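#dry-run=false #mode=assembly
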Amino acid sequence: MPALGPMAPAQRCPLCRQTFFCGRGHVYSRKHQRTLKAALERLLPQVEAARKAVRAAQVERYVPEHERRCWCLCCGCEVRKHLSHGNLTVLHGGLLEHLASPEHKKATNRFWWENKAEFQMKEKFLISPQDYARFKKSMVKGLDNYEEKEDEVIKEMAAQIREVEHSRQELVRSVLEPQPVPDPEEGSSALGSWKGTNSLVASTSQQPSYLDLPPAPELDWMETGQPLTFIGHQETPGIGNIHSGATPPWMVQDEEYSSVNQQIGPSYEEFLKEKEKQKLKKLPPDRVGANFDHSSSTSIGWLPSFGRVWNNGRRWQSRHQFKSEAAARNKQSHKKSQSFPDTFSSQQTHT
Amino acid sequence: MSFLLPKLTSKKEVDQAIQSTAEKVLVLRFGRDEDPVCLQLDDILSKTSSDLSKMAAIYLVDVDRTPVYTHYFDISYIPSTVFFFNGQHMKVDYGSPDHTKFVGSFKTKQDFIDLIEVIYRGAMRGKLIVQSPIDPKNIPKYDLLYQD
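#status=ok
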C-alpha cells in the first residue's frame, strides 16, 4: 500500500486529544487551531476575573464552594481558584498567585511556542509581579473592611436583642401590675415581639447578610397587621373550666323548663328527629359507617377480596370467578344430594 | 360573610346545637362579628360550609352573649373554634399549646377542609383526640399568658 502523505512517528496532541502522524504539520492544521482557540476562550474569563480582583480584592466568609479548582491549560495542572485561610476567603487569590509565578510564565511560553498560538494573546494570560504586589495590598485593605463590617453587624444584632428584651420586660411588668383593662395593643405588640425574637434567635446562626430574608415572609402571613384580639383572662377561681375538668355547660341540667315541655308525647322537634332516623334506616344495611348494623347477615360476596392471590385485574373479574366457582360448588353439592334419591328411585322402578 | 352562617345567641341554643347535631362534626366559632380576624375566618367557613354540609355543621357564637361558654372554654383570644362530634368535645393537636380549640384563622380553605375531614374520620373511629393535618407554619401563633 503506498504511503499517504508525509510519514512521521505517531505523536499525541494533548490539546486535541488525538494521535497524528503529520509531525510538526499538525499544529498548523485548521482543526488544531480551532481547538486551541476554544480552549483559550474557556480560560480567558477566569483570568479576566482574576485580573479584576487585582484592583479591588474581595474578602468573604468561607463557604465550601470556595474549594473550587481551575485547570491551568499551560501548566497542565489544577489550581485552587480562591485563597482561603481559617474562615475567610480572598476571591481569585489562588489563581492570581499561580498566574504570577515564574513557572507559569515559562510554561505559558512553551505552550505558545509549541501550539503556535497567536502572540498577542499570550500577554492576556500572564500577570506581572507588580500586579501581584498591587493585589496583595488591596487584599490587606479588603480584610480590614471585612472585619469592620462584621463588627457593625454584631453590634446591630446586640442592639436588636436588647430592644426585644426590654419590651418583653415591660410587658411582664404591665401584666403583673393590677390594671383595670389590659391594653389590647400591649397584648398584640407582645405577640409581635415574641415572633420577632423567635425568628431572630433562630437565624443568628446563619450568615448576617441573610438575616433579613427568612423572618420577613414568615411575618407576612402571620401578622398582616392583625394580631389576634385578646378578650381578657377567663378566670374566676370558683368555677372550673375545660382545663380543670368541670362539667360542661351543656351537660348541666337546666331548671328553666317552660310549660311547653310539659306536654305529653313527642314534641315537633322530636318528630323531625324521628323522620331523620327513618331516613337513616333506609340506607343499605350492608354499608359500613357509624350506624352499621353488626347483627345483619352479609353474603359471602361482601368482603372486599375473594381470596385470589395472583390477581391483577379488576375486582369484578375475581368476583366473577368467585361466583362461577361458588355456582359450580353449589351444583356439585346439589348433584350429590340429588344423586342419592335418584338412584333410589331408579332402583325402585327397576324392581 | 357572617350573615350566611347560622348564629347562636344564648347558652340554651348552644346546648341544643351540641346535643342535637348527630353524625356530623359541629363547628362552633367563638368570636365577634366585627373583629377582622373573625371576618377572615367567617369568610373561609361560609365558603366551605356548603361543600362540607354532609360532614359538618357550622355555627357562629358571639363571645359576649354566652359568657358561660366563653368562661368554660377559657377563650382569651378570638376567634376560637371548638369542634364536637355527637355531643363529644373533640380535641386536636395542632402543635400549639391548647388542644381544646383552634385559635385564629385558617390560611386557606383547604386547611379547614382537611382538618374537618381528619376530625370526622377520627370521630367515626372512636377517637377523642386527633392530629391536625395543617402545616405548623400555617397555624397562627399566640402566647398563653399565665396569671400568677
